[in-house]
């Protein structure tokens, strides 16, 4: 009985793997943030596309829209730090020509559980040659795409009939109150200078990654995402910015300087909404076009 079960499982696995390799489904559905991050990492690690430019960042840089950026891959993760992306990148055989590193969230350390799940030697090679075992290629993820669209097409008209368009923003005052509460918390957080130890550890770790990639011919470009103007020049943000400039001087490294934060709106003080993300993407794109001009 056990042998038959194992044999049946192998037949199904092989058949599904052949289907995945033949159809090469591009659209994928993740069930939660962790899986979405895993899919982003696996898609990069197992891609045959040699991306010339890679963006490393936190949930802030996740908002950059790479559709309009040629030969770019956004290896930023929601809820994670730049060190998760740097660790994932270190396992890639073909490295990019240019590496764009976000400056904002440098004090948050690597999530070992996340990166170890991707770099396990046995699973890494197994997923490399058996694509159906990757998170984004599993049946629920692949089949979930048409199911999601079907459900949405059925429920959207029903939802619209119960939610009149003119009353969409009836709770705007409550939304403003929530936003002000979030801004107040961010101001309190960034008004406290980070400890000397946390600064030293983070930048020591960052330097080791940068030295590794530079030895392999990768050019490093730093960029700073716009945030709410009220927290942009508080002690923590200023110290982080100054430490970058001290450890990675302008004479040796390129920077895409942060745009005027007064011109950008955030959802919570830190993250850009969709419209503002497109605005920053255009800013980012224009800076690249003129080689990181200030």
Keywords:
10 helices; Rossmann fold; 5-stranded parallel β-sheet; globular; 8% strand; single chain; 5 strands; 294 residues; 52% helix; alpha/beta
Could you give a quick summary of the protein structure above?
By secondary structure, this protein is an alpha/beta fold.
Question: Your description of this structure?
Answer:
This protein is of the alpha/beta class and 294 residues long. It has a single domain, classed as Rossmann fold, CATH 3.40.50. It contains ten helices and five strands, in the order H-H-E-E-H-E-H-H-H-H-H-E-H-E-H. It has helices at residues 2-23, 33-45, 82-89, 112-119, 121-129, 139-162, 172-190, 196-215, 235-247, 274-289; strands spanning 53-57, 72-76, 98-102, 219-223, 254-256. A five-stranded parallel beta sheet has the order 2-1-3-4-5, with helices on both faces. Helix 9 (235-247) links the parallel strand 4 and strand 5. The longest helix has 24 residues, at 139-162. The chain is globular, with a radius of gyration of 22 Å. The termini are far apart. 24% of the residues are buried. The model is unreliable at 147-152 and 154-172 (pLDDT under 50).
What order do the SSEs take from the amino end to the carboxyl end, as H and E? HHEEHEHHHHHEHEH
Biggest sheet: strand arrangement: 2-1-3-4-5
Tally the helices.
10
Based on helices, strands and strand pairing, what is the structural class? Answer: alpha/beta
Q: Indicate the mean pLDDT.
A: 81
Low-confidence stretches: 147-152, 154-172
How many beta-strand elements? 5
Percent strand: 5-15%
CATH class: Alpha Beta
| CATH topology category name | Rossmann fold
